Amino acid sequence: MINLIKRTNGHLFYSSQDLEKYLGGKYVIEYLKLCVVINYMSEEFTIMTNLRYYIITIALCVLCADYSYSQGCSDAGLCTMNSFKPHSHDSTEGFDNQIKVGAFFGRADNSISVFGNYVEYNRRVSKKLGLDAKLTTTAQSGNGITVFGLSDIFLNANYSVSELFALTLGIKIPLSKAKGTHDNGPLPMDYQSSLGTFDLLFGFGYTYETVQLVAALQIPLTQNENNFLAGAYPIDSRMRAFQSTKNYQRSGDVLFRVSYPIIINSEFRITPSILPIYHLTNDKYTDEFYVEREISGSQGLTLNGNLYVDYEVGRESSIQLNVGIPFMVRDARPDGLTRSIAANVEYRIKF
């Protein structure tokens, strides 16, 4: 073991006695243990490729970052659409239909936990044209309140201009007007199953070598009917901590995603992804005096990181795990979409 110790600050050691004279007896054992670990790690890293080292680093960052960030991802549904998620171009080759069933969990602001599920159908009409339909539900629990409801229906068409470039046009249809209540009191957006807006969705995807690039726009064409005013609740109520959103007017979002799929073997694929989302303008609400006010700080950038792990169960089915965390957030997020960490598991079957 002593042979592992070659040089420390320019001093050469051949025995533990030499080392003890230099460091002092009580530090020798700890130093030797550290040297053994460092030597072992060095040998292992020499065997590993740089690519696998990066994968492990990214995975640890994603899984551990929840301890460093308390606020996070804000996505109104755009980045979870099939055409805007990382994928392999041959994932549905030989099949015209695909069904997905998924469930997700997130930790939101104000001690709220979010659960949800969805079912999605993808249809390849031709070599260039595809259609997607998705139904989502959401449940929230926290502060003595538990709610559940249908969320949205997503419908979109995808057109492949070439093997490397594709366009997507779609809509989001709300199944709720975001006016849910609890004990006859209006609830803030954090407890609503949908934003309650009818949205236009547009985007494109481009593949450069192995890097996948996506840019997309989500614009509300209608607004919801939320009636929450924090000031209407008693002074000691927890509802006072939420942003008022009566007659809430939500702005649109622009997103840009960069993904790099890494094929481990014929069954496993890992895809780290960076996802900036820019909220175009400040949102607005109507106060107790029927005055329309801007919500300062609701405009701006949210920067998210995602790690996708795909496992091919067989030629017809696969499982995907997706974990996401925020690196940067807007000062105000009245839409209730904040997540300090979000995890999603999805099962796909092709036929």
Q: Could you please describe the fold and organization of this structure?
A:
It is a single chain. The chain has 351 residues and is mostly beta strands. The chain is 13% helix and 44% strand. The chain contains 3 helices and 19 strands. The chain has helices spanning 16-23, 25-47, 50-64, and strands spanning 7-8, 11-12, 97-107, 113-124, 129-142, 145-160, 165-174, 181-182, 185-186, 199-208, 211-220, 253-259, 262-263, 268-279, 284-286, 292-294, 300-312, 317-328, 341-350. Strand 10 and strand 11 (211-220) form a beta hairpin. The termini are far apart.
Q: Which whole number gives the mean pLDDT?
A: 83
Shape: elongated
Care to count the β-strands?
Answer: 19
Structural class: mainly beta
Indicate the proportion of strand residues. Answer: 35-45%
Distance between the termini: 59 Å
Instruction: Name the helix and strand elements from N-terminus to C-terminus, one letter apiece.
Output: EEHHHEEEEEEEEEEEEEEEEE
- The stretches of 5 or more residues where confidence is low (pLDDT under 50) are 1-14, 44-74
Q: How are the strands ordered across the major sheet?
A: 3-4-5-6-7-10-11-12-14-17-18-19
Number of helices: 3
* Cα Rg: 25 Å
What is the helix fraction of residues, given as a range?
A: 10-25%
